[in-house]
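ok trying this again, last paste got cut off
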Amino acid sequence: MTEEVWWKRGIVYQIYPRSFQDSDGDGIGDLKGIRSRLDYLQWLGVDAIWISPIFVSPMADFGYDVADYCAIEPVFGTMEDFDALIADVHARGMKLILDFVPNHTSEQHPWFLESRSSRTNPKRDWYIWHDPAPDGGPPNNWVAFFGGSGWEWDEKTGQYYYHAYLREQPDLNWRNPAVRAAMFNVMRFWLDRGVDGFRVDVMWHLIKDAEFRDNPPNPDYRSGLPEVASLVAFYSTDRPEVHEVVREMRAVTDEYDERILIGEIYLPIDRLVTYYGEHLDEAQLPFNFQLVEDGWDAEEIWNSLNDYEAALPNGGWPNWVLSNHDKPRVATRIGRPQARVAMMLLLTARARRPFITATRSPWRMSRSPSNTSRIPGRPASRAISAATRSARPCNGSRAQAPASRAGRRGCR
């Protein structure tokens, strides 16, 4: 792959469709609304837009509970609207990245409805089912990221199913080859329509311990932290076998020219960089969240830069995340004097690297149509604009979040 491949130099701008731009006055952003702002995004210097989930969903987790991976949620528009959007994006020399949510589906997905219907259904093993513990309780101590047990009892079939997030989001069993084949075909469906790659949701969650062992207690846990932090998710995330899955995903995108696989991974640097793959055959860009997680101090950022780039595998390409839908306020800090100094340091020292930032916080947008019709959040726009000028010297709603997502930290 050449040094000039687009994703090595690109500014990626995340759009949360629900809160970005409403085109029909119903107070909810949509695909036509995104189309109407493409000239604005192009003016900012954006190279690629990453669109949060637009698939059919009952919206228990505002789109991250998918009921049909190959259809557009009607509140956002139609497949014709999507085709028109991607054509307009490409006509402006920009790229379009879709959010891919492979760890779990909605409980209303046809696959899960079949899986839940009986223990003998052919799709039973498409999800993670387990008998109760000897005392009749959950199979182990795994905790859901939104609190409570990660296991939900199903009275009809007499087993528990696992959900890393909401009970309405049962986890798929990625150890099942049929699940992998079905999900890889989903990827091909969108790649055939012209998408330029995927941001893969909670990539490090995809494989769970085959023996379902208890997670160890977190020795650093203290009162006031979320319940999920009481355990070290050693057996429920970041299992060695997940790298095989990521390599297979990468092989799918490599069937097409210059497509990108971006991994959402909240892990320490030494484990994060393993998702590039031993032979650079996994995610081209495992998300680097240091600028989201670190304090905005020039010395701290400088040290983080050195630690991160020293850990990169030979040939691994760095990336810097300024903001996303989980932590959308970070880019606004660039308006503070100490943050401007830190960002100038970053941009001058590590110029011409991919940057990713988000639109205004989706859960801080008003429900009113007048608010969702505005130009998207200016703070994130300034972040993009500043990065563009420094990193490319040669080139020129969610109306309100549900409680489950409002307090999340490092989950998506």
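PB: full thing came through this time. The first strand starts at residue 11 and ends at 15.
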